[in-house]
Design brief:
6 helices, mainly alpha
Amino acid sequence: MASPQALANHLSVGTTDPKSYLSKIFPGQKLVQRAVHMNSGQGPSGMTNPLIGMKNLGDYILDAGWGSLGAWAGIKALYEASKSNGGKLAGFVADIASGGTYGIAHGAVGGVLSAIGPFVVMMVVALFFFGAT
């Protein structure tokens, strides 16, 4: 097992510059470079035009936003459909078959959906914003 001093030395970046600490914790530039080079090798020499690479990154972000929006809409639609007459009947049968667990799970899902709804909307809007810029 390593000593506490060895662990502290491993975390040290050798400077008091806050940017160095931040880049040690969160390597944002490396993440962007990896995302840009996901579809590299477009040119004859294996090089990717930086503008095309960043455009592709924006397209990936927009695709993630549209996928997230579709998934969220689908989940909300299924939950709301369970409140219809047919959904209530199916829920009643499922509640009997599961010994009451379905009703508990249904209530929990409703609470979670209403609690995280505003955050999901903000994240999807942020994805659209960052993907379009």
